[in-house]
Amino acid sequence: MRRISAEYAAGFFDGEGCVRVAKNRRAERIYPSGNRREDFFEYGLAASIAQSYRPILSALSAQWGGLISPQKSHANKAMWEWKLGRKAAVRFLREIFPYVRVKSLEVWLALNFDSDITQNRRGPGVRLSEEELALREGYYLALRQAKKEENYN
Q1: What is the C-alpha separation between 91 and 132, in angstroms, rounded?
Q2: What pLDDT, on the 0 to 100 scale, is given for residue 2?
Q3: What is the DSSP string of 51-81?
Q4: In angstroms, how far is CA 125 from the centroid of its own chain?
Q5: 46 to each of 19, 63, 66, 75, how far by Cα in Å?
Q6: 97: buried, middle or exposed (CB in 10 Å: 19+, 13-18, 0-12)?
Q7: Which helix (H) or strand (E) covers residue 83, if one does?
Q8: Could you tell me the pTM of the whole model?
Q9: Neighbours of 152 (CB within 10 A)
Q10: How many CB atoms neighbour CB 104 within 10 A?
Q11: β-bridge pairing 36-37 and 79-84
Q12: pLDDT value, residue 64
C-alpha cells in the first residue's frame, strides 16, 4: 500500500476528522477488599475520521494504527469510522500538525492536553488533585469552544 503523506492526511483530517477530549463520569465503586472509590471524572484524548470510502481509512489505519468500525448513516450508504486512542492519536496529530489549517487550534490543544496530563499521570483509580482536575477541565472546555469557531490559518 502506498504511503500517505502527512500533508494529504492533514487536509483529509481538516475536512472529515474530529479530535476530542472525552469527559466520562466514573461511578462510585466498592472493591471486594472494602476499599471505596468515589464518583470522579476521567478525561481522555481521541481522534477519528468518518468516511464512506473505506480504502482510505484502511490506508490511514495501516500507517498510523487505530481501528475501523461501521458507523450509522443517515443516507442509505455504508459509513466507516477510523478511531484512534490516545497514543495513536498523539502520533498522528504530531505528524499532521504542521499542515493542518482548519483544525490547527484543536490539534494544538489536544497535543498540549496530552503533554500536560502525561507529566502528571497517575495510576488507575488514583484521585486527582483539584488543580489537575481544573487543568483537564480547562482543556476540555477550550477544545469544545475551538470547535465552535472558524480557525482557518
Answers
A1: 24
A2: 80
A3: ES-HHHHHHHHHHH--EEEEE--SSSS-EEE
A4: 21
A5: 6, 17, 10, 26
A6: middle
A7: strand 79-84
A8: 0.85
A9: 8
A10: 19
A11: unpaired
A12: 97
How far are the Cα atoms of 13, 48, 70, 109, 113 from residue 141, in angstroms, in the given order? 21, 19, 29, 10, 11
Instruction: Check residue 148 and give its pLDDT.
Output: 87
Residue 139, Cβ density class (10 Å: 0-12 exposed, 13-18 middle, ≥19 buried): buried
Give the mean pLDDT of the chain.
87
For the chain, the C-alpha Rg in angstroms (whole number) is 17
Instruction: Output b/e per residue, 34-72; b: 16+ Cβ within 10 A.
Output: eeeeeeeeebbbbbbbebeeeebbebbbebbebebeeee
Helix axes 86-96, 6-16, angle to 10 degrees: 110
Q: What is the pLDDT at residue 74?
A: 74
Contact indicator for 142, 109 with CB cutoff of 8 Å: yes
Which ranges of the chain have pLDDT less than 70? 1, 27-39, 119-127, 150-153
